[in-house]
Amino acid sequence: VCIRSALRVLSRRIFVTMAPKEMIRQIGLDAWTVEDFKETIYKEGCKKLHIVDVYTAWCGPCLSIVPTFKNLQVSVDQFEERCTISQVERSILPEYAERFPETSKPRFMFYKFGVEVTVIEGLAAPAILKFIEENLPPMEIED
User: Fold this and answer.
1) pLDDT score at 134
2) List of residues 6+ apart from 124 with CB closer than 8 A
3) Global pTM?
4) Distance from the CA of 48 to the CA of which of 78, 102, 129, 131 falls in 20 to 30 A?
5) How far apart are CA 87 and CA 82, in angstroms?
6) Which top-rank group of organisms is this from (predicted)?
7) Which residues of the chain have pLDDT under 50?
8) CB pairs under 8 A, 24+ apart, for 129-132?
9) CA-CA distance, 49 to 113, in Å (whole number)?
10) Structural domains in the chain?
11) What is the pairing mode between strands 107-112 and 49-55?
């Protein structure tokens, strides 16, 4: 399913913002640790696309993109099996604290096969959706 066309269709429906379950993980919530996060995104050979919202403590994670992610969760087949979404406060990870300055602008990092693929600065929803569409792994076909 083309992500853009699915979003166009679903944007006209009221239930779009309701996702089946919460798939966005945040370090420190629900006993999800830094080690769990690193194990998830740096897992060698993992085909999933990993999206990381790196935020500043005084600003918090980007809430404006959450409905877009929930739309994808509802409209894209097996989205949860093909993608993970994490929110990480920049000072929790020394490598993020050193690399990224404190700012109110959201920053989205994308990982695949245990390697950082790209970073998108700001709430650039069209660029984020395009990247997801081009990099979401194919669905696993069951025999």
Assistant:
1) 95
2) none
3) 0.81
4) 102
5) 17
6) Eukaryota
7) 9-20
8) 129/3, 129/4, 129/7, 129/68, 132/3, 132/49, 132/51, 132/72, 132/83
9) 8
10) 3-129 (3.40.30.10)
11) antiparallel
pLDDT of 17: 41
- Cα–Cα distance list, 112 to 13, 51, 71, 83 (Å): 32, 9, 22, 10
Q: Which two tokens stand for residue 52?
A: 């990381």
Decide: 107 and 52 in contact? Cβ < 8 Å. Answer: no
Starting from the edge strand earliest in sequence, which strands make up the sheet with 115-121, in order?
24-26, 83-89, 49-55, 107-112, 115-121
Q: What SS3 class is residue 46?
A: coil
Give the model's pLDDT for residue 11. 46
Query: Strands, E, within 1-114: which ranges?
Result: 24-26, 49-55, 83-89, 107-112
Q: What is the pLDDT of residues 5-24, one digit of tens each?
A: 555 544 443 344 444 458 89
* Residues present in the chain in total: 143
Token duo for residue 34? 């830094």
Tell me what pLDDT residue 14 has: 37
SS3 assignment, position 24: strand
